[in-house]
Amino acid sequence: MAPSRPAPRRLVTSVTPDPEVASQPEHQLSARALLELELADGARVVLLDDRGWTSSTGRSSSIWASTTREDVEETARTVVGPDGPVHGGTWEQAVAASWSHLADVAVASGVAVGGPELASLPHDVVVDATLLARLSPGPPVG
Questions:
Q1: Residues 6+ away with beta carbon under 8 Å from 126
Q2: β-strands 28-39, 44-56: how paired?
Q3: Angle made by CA atoms 41, 116, 93, in degrees to the nearest 5
Q4: What is the pTM of this model?
Q5: Residue 84, C-beta contacts closer than 8 angstroms, at least 6 positions apart
Q6: Is residue 142 in some structural domain?
Q7: Residue 34 lies in a domain
Q8: How far from 7 is each of 10, 31, 65, 105, 131, CA to CA, in Å?
Q9: Can you give the residue range of the structural domain that contains 103?
Q10: How much of the chain, in percent, has pLDDT values that exceed 70?
Q11: Number of domains in the chain
Q12: What angle do CA 21, 105, 128 make, to 5 degrees?
């Protein structure tokens, strides 16, 4: 049996511009979200690499002027899950199944972790500098 990897430290979702969209128009924001499990030694294990979203204001206004870093962070956390219920299941069942699936991915990579432990970890969102440069700074603090 292979030795277990270091303990989980946090979840990290990295948000980058969607490479499928060559140039982000003023009315549209397209992003990819990569969910990783960061371990105590700093190594990361990919849990989800197939998530992303597109937001649009229509062609008359700039989505970039009205979207803040906080908006992107909130959307990223939503996009990586947990997913909602399917086929008449409850929200609680869907959440448990989502965390269990992510734990199975981590275990397959040698990380001993369960769904409830993953759910309790801090979840940080790292937004790519290219996206950050175009976002609204948000309301002034103070």
A1: 12, 13, 14, 15
A2: antiparallel
A3: 140
A4: 0.88
A5: 91, 94
A6: no
A7: yes
A8: 10, 30, 40, 15, 31
A9: 8-134
A10: 94
A11: 1
A12: 30
